Structure formats: structure tokens, C-alpha cells
User: What shape does this take?
Amino acid sequence: MTKFVCGFAFEGQNVALIRKKRPEWQAGLLNGIGGHVEHGETFLEAMVREFREETGYSSDPRSWIPFAEWKTENAHVLFYKAYIPMLEDVLHTVTDEKVEIVPVRSVTPFNCLPNLVWLISMAINVVYDGFMKDSIFTLGKREYGTEER
Assistant: This one.
């Protein structure tokens, strides 16, 4: 099973996304920042690494909060959110895929991957307090637990 991470970094009403060039079906669309989990790496380690590789910013692992996951026979994706001050000043494009800081209200099904609109809404609205601290949402059910190696 291939493992992936996808993260949304927020500041105020803005979110950091990446303008995809590949795979072909994503070309030209906005997506969250992330990628593959490498062998022996936790989801959180992958999120921090991928964010640094794509934005040049070394984020504090404690700033990333898992809020949803998606599992199929072939893939396991863990979605994270973070609040990072001064996004415009600390993030920049490092790869050939451009990092964009966009107003959340401008994310539509016409300029991003189809599931991004509701994932960003979920990231903003999921309550994270003592009750939710160790839980994440899985499509169709709620699962307890956090990390897998």
C-alpha cells in the first residue's frame, strides 16, 4: 500500500497550496502540499519533510494536526492542517510546482482538485481540543489512533 500526506497551512483567511504540474490529471490545478511517505518514516515525519522540500520552510512537527484520512486497497492518505504565521514571508517555491497563498474563499472546484473545497472546509472546522486530540476522521467513520510506521 502506498502512503501519502497532504497538508494545508493556514494564516487568517489564506491557505498555502501548490499548483500541480503532475501527474497529468492534476496539471494546472491547486492541491495541498505533500507527497509520498518514505519507508521507515511516520506520516508526521513525511508531512514535515514534504512541506520543507516544496516550500523551503522547516515547520515545527507540533504545528501539524491530523484531521482526516482516506484509505483504499492501494493507498492511505493522512491529511494535516497547520497555522503558520506570515505565510507570504516564510514560504517560497522550491520545485517546478509553484507554491501559492490564496484566500480560502477563492478555492473552487474549477481551480483545484475536486475534493479540496470540502477538505479545506473540514480542516478549518474540525474542533481540536482534549476530546478530539487523538482522533481523526476516516471517510464514513471515526477512527482512534494517530501514527503508523
